[in-house]
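[worker-b] picked up task from shared queue
[worker-b] task type: protein-ligand structure
[worker-b] ligand name resolved to zinc ion; SMILES cross-checked against name lookup, match
[worker-b] sequence length check passed
[worker-b] input payload:
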Amino acid sequence: MHGFIIVLLTEEEAQQGKAHLLHHIEKIVYPYKRAYDQGDERVCGCADETGAANPNCEDCKGTGKSPHNPNGKLDYWVLGGRYEGFIRNGKIDPQKSIGDFFTELINFMSSSSGNVLPDSSHSEIDTNVVPIDHIHLNVLREVWITPDHGWVENIFNFTDDPRQKYKDHWVAGIDYHS
Ligand SMILES: [Zn+2]
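[worker-b] inference finished, payload out:
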C-alpha cells in the first residue's frame, strides 16, 4: 500500500539542498519506520519486567533485542513519487499511481539497509517542497508529521487551520510504502 505524508520543515531546512534535505526528512520519518534498520535494535516485546526474553521468540530469537518497531507505520518513503506534485496541485497522476514492481522491490531492498534511497528514486524538490501557504486544500486531510504532535492522522484534531498554526513553515510531500 502507498500513502502520502506531509512533512513539516522550517524554511532553512527546506532550502538546504537536496542531499541534506533527504537526510533531514529521513530523520523525521525514521521513528515511524517498521524496522530499526540503523543498528539500533530495541527491547523486544517478548521481554518481561526483568528484561528476560523468551528463548523461543521468533522475532528476537531469544536475544531480547528486536529490529521491529512497535510504532512502525511504513517501510520506506520517497520525495514526491506516486504523489509527484500533489502537495501543490492536489492531483494524483493515474499513470504514476500504478507504480512498477521492480522499482518497488529495489526500494524495499535498499531501504532495509537503513540508507536514504538514492537521489534518482526521489522526485524534484521544486514540485514537492513548498511554503505552507502554497499547499493545496485537497491535501490538508492527509497524514502529517509535525514537530509538536508527531504522526497525525487528522490535523484538524489539533487546529482549525494548519496553515496558520504552522505559519512560515514549509511542507514536503512524500510517498510512503507500508
Ligand atoms: Zn523476542
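[worker-b] attaching auto-annotations
[worker-b] Residues 44, 46, 53-54, 57, 59-60, 66 surround zinc ion (CB under 6 Å).
[worker-b] releasing lock
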